[in-house]
Specification:
Elements: H1 2-26, H2 32-42, H3 56-78, E1 98-103, E2 109-112, E3 117-122, E4 126-131, E5 142-147, E6 153-158, E7 170-179, E8 183-189, E9 194-198, H4 202-205, H5 207-218, H6 225-259, E10 260-266, H7 270-275, H8 281-293, H9 295-308, E11 312-316, E12 341-343, E13 350-352, H10 353-364, H11 368-374, H12 378-383, H13 399-403
Parallel strand pairs: 7-10, 10-11
Antiparallel strand pairs: 1-5, 2-3, 3-4, 5-6, 7-8, 8-9, 12-13
Helix pairs in contact: 1-3, 2-3, 5-6, 6-9
Length: 404
């Protein structure tokens, strides 16, 4: 397996180097077919003869990945690709995540047992035993074996499944989320309930352990076995933070999608928020907190699951959502982040900053009819500050409870 990972990495790096050299000399890039021919020729040379010791399918997939990465970069520069700007492909490092993909051409075979164990036979590797998390619903079209920097191996399959679309728990309810750092999210529902989700701060919870592991790594001699072990310990700490954050995002997004028919969120510039702020210690803390909370991953999971479960999804412009009074609609002006509650200068409503923004997002997403049908004070109930439990991290209240 290590030999396969190394060959895949070398082939990918050779393809990237060939693309760069061709573009610098001729101003044109090489096609995937030309790169495949170069790979076949490289196997016959003494310097790359060992590429024939592994399966040719993962090597060909590496060439395709390098070609696709460069095409994505050109499409992004030309404006033909939506989303954030894509960088040109970079060389792979042996200490980073390694992957090898086998398609049907490799002739892999999967055998499942009833004891939670599976076996996949890979070309020139043999039988690979893995923990069978659940039975495969159909015959896989490809299998990918990966190794994380912390030394763990994973095997994943591409299968075809029928989407299991289920009716939401509240078919007529919409939810609007205002994401933040003090609280992960303030949620206002169209039926008059609201809640706040506490920010778990996964990185902060393991920051001391991670700092100790990084100090130990910095004291090891480069190239030594002890440094390699210390690098794995640092990678494991990062993996624990990443896994806990991903688990939290999956649980919350699944609950929101299953319970509601429509989800409304802010269209955030996550990269810009993670780089903004002052240059002092407070600014560094804000940037670290924005990176730790993982807004980009959370919003991506929410958008994907809304398609999977056939739910409505709306991303609205977040401009002035925290400054406009959701009761009377008057722009009250900017407020520092330290102000969590404010009183509207026009109507006198005492508003919670996060709930007020969530209600404005709900209205901007086109869910105002549901609010108006519930009565004139519904927006006030959803957006108002609670003088008794102003610092409660999570609240669930209906209209009757909020009025009481």
């Amino acid at each position: 397996m290590a030999r396969t990972f190394g060959c895949v990495r070398v082939v990918f790096n050779d393809a990237v180097a060939a693309q760069r050299a061709a573009y610098e000399s001729t101003g044109k890039s090489l096609s995937g077919a030309v790169l495949s021919v170069q790979l076949a020729a490289a196997k016959k040379t003494p310097e790359r003869k060992w590429l024939g010791e592994v399966s040719s399918v993962p090597l060909q997939q590496a060439v395709s990945d390098a070609d696709k990465a460069l095409r994505s970069f050109f499409d992004s520069v030309a404006g033909r690709r939506k989303g954030a700007r894509v960088n040109p492909p970079r060389f792979k490092n042996k200490h980073a995540r390694q992957a090898a993909r086998f398609t049907r051409n490799a002739g892999f075979k999967v055998r499942q047992t009833t004891h939670g164990v599976g076996f996949v036979r890979l070309s020139k590797i043999g039988d690979v035993r893995f923990a069978l998390s659940r039975a495969l619903p159909s015959a896989p079209s490809s299998v990918t074996v990966t190794r994380d920097p912390d030394g763990r191996y994973f095997v994943s399959f591409v299968v075809e499944v029928e989407p299991a679309v289920a009716a939401p728990v509240h078919p007529d309810r919409a939810a609007a989320l205002d994401l933040g750092l003090t609280d992960f999210a303030a949620i206002a529902y169209s039926d008059g309930t609201r809640e706040k989700i506490a920010n778990p701060r996964h990185l902060k919870a393991r920051q001391l352990r991670l700092a100790k592991a990084q100090r130990d790594l910095s004291r090891k001699t480069k190239g030594s076995n002890n440094r390699a072990k210390a690098r794995v310990r640092v990678a494991r700490e990062h993996a624990k933070v990443r896994n806990s954050r991903l688990d939290f995002h999956h649980r919350l997004t699944t609950r929101l999608i299953r319970d509601n028919q429509t989800i409304a969120v802010e269209k955030l510039n996550v990269v810009g928020l993670a780089r903004s702020g002052a240059k002092n210690a407070q600014g560094r803390g804000l940037r670290r907190g924005a990176a730790d909370v993982g807004w980009g991953q959370f919003l991506a999971l929410l958008a994907d699951k809304s398609v999977e479960y056939d739910r409505g999804y709306a991303a609205v412009n977040p401009a002035y959502t925290s400054q406009v009074c959701s009761v009377c609609g008057v722009l009250d002006g900017p407020k520092p982040l330290s102000v969590r509650q404010w009183e509207c200068g026009s109507c006198g409503a005492l508003l919670d900053r996060d709930f007020n923004a969530a209600v404005n997002i709900l209205v901007a997403a086109g869910q105002a009819e549901t609010l108006n049908a519930r009565g004139g004070n519904v927006r006030l109930v959803l957006a108002q500050a609670d003088s008794v439990e102003a610092r409660t991290l999570r609240t669930d209240r209906g209209l009757a409870a909020a009025a009481a």
